[in-house]
Amino acid sequence: MSATEIGCMRVKPSLDVMNEDTPEGQILSKLYNYVVVAPGGPLRVSWGVEVEDPSYLWAFFDWDSLEAHESFARTLGQEAVKDLPKILTRGGFTKHITATPSLPAALQSTVTQVVLAYFASNPSPTVADAAIARLKDWEENEIEKVLGMEALSYGWGLEKDLPVRGGSADQRASIFLSVFGFDDVDAQRDFRESLSLEKLLGRIQATEGFVKLEVFSVCFRSTSRHSETLL
What we know:
The protein has helices at 23-35, 66-80, 103-107, 125-142, 185-192, 195-205; strands at residues 3-10, 44-49, 56-63, 93-99, 111-119, 149-157, 162-163, 172-182, 210-218, 221-224, 227-230. It has 231 residues and is an alpha+beta fold. The chain has a single domain, classed as Alpha-Beta Plaits (2-Layer Sandwich). Strands 1, 2, 3, 4, 5, 6, 7, 8, 9, 10 and 11 form an eleven-stranded antiparallel beta sheet that branches.
């Protein structure tokens, strides 16, 4: 079964990791363009910093399977990431999600709105299904009101021990991730301030086991095994 690795890392102060004219930007670009052509590497990588707080770097890696990622990490992974400590601080996380097939389209849009919902660890199948059902119901009733949206994808994390941003050092949770791809920044900003998004967040917060929400936007850059880097 295919899986998407999701990583969140902190950028060292004063570094512009998305600018390929800087040494730090070259480190990231070379790394991600290398792994997609390396034997056993991911099919696709998307990366970018939060617009609201550029000290947070997010990366999504599409793998043939969870086992494929684990195998790559054992063989070439350590060599591939050897330069990351030069630009990133310790901390963050690397986990996995299973998302709907439209995830690549959402990440390759001009700007992506991300809704990251933390839930109590190890939610029951009933809770997981309820969160998805509420998002689907919102999609059926509200998405026509949202202008400029190109793609919507969502999914639950596979692991149940993600660190909660702003929580205690030992606080862990499951995540339900929703990503919305927009064709321009103005459309995304309108959505961020809309009643439609407010309704969606309310539905997520009303789901059993809800802990916390993080809502932010990212302008991702992507590269894949069969294409050049997309800006």
